[in-house]
Amino acid sequence: MEPRAENRRRILLADDYPAMMRALERLLTPDYDVVGQVADGGAVVEAAVRLQPDLVIVDLHMPNMGGLEACRRIRRELPQTKVILLTATGDDVIAESALASGASAYVVKYRLGHDLLPAIEKSLA
């Protein structure tokens, strides 16, 4: 994790698969500061409160607390922080649940390279 550069937005990552975490970091670090990485839902809420990121990217299915509940708690504790949920499969029920939990977007993992950066830009606009 790099020190904060001027005017770069701060992102916290939460996924229980190390390969996904590495892929996210590689995708984001040219334009954003990745301020932390955690592997379970409870830890992401604690890290968000401590680190005060602009955006949290959280996997839907994680140990100790699912992404939907983590999203609700982050939005309750940090209403200014945006959340994007990641999911392995996309369907209307997941999309509705993600948005109802307070997420500003959800991204299907197999479309990560195509959809994540536009979702971040829209969420932070």
What does the model show?
The chain has a single domain (10-124), classed as 3-Layer(aba) Sandwich (Rossmann fold). Helices cover 44% and strands 21% of the residues. It has helices spanning 18-28, 41-51, 67-77, 92-100, 112-124; strands at residues 10-14, 33-38, 55-59, 82-87, 105-108. It has a 5-stranded parallel β-sheet, with helices on both faces. Strand 3, helix 3 and strand 4 (82-87) form a beta-alpha-beta unit. Helix 2 (41-51) runs parallel beside helix 3 (67-77). The mean pLDDT is 91.
Largest sheet: 5 strands, parallel
> Which structural class fits the helix and strand makeup?
alpha/beta
Helix share bin = 40-55%
CATH topology description: Rossmann fold
Distance between the termini: 24 Å
Work out the helix count.
Answer: 5
- Tell me the strand order in the biggest sheet: 2-1-3-4-5
Please state the CA-atom Rg, rounded to the nearest Å.
Answer: 13 Å
Name of the CATH homologous superfamily: Response regulator
The strand count comes to 5
The shape, in one word, is globular
What is the typical, i.e. mean, pLDDT?
Answer: 91
Poorly predicted sequence stretches spanning 5 or more consecutive residues: none
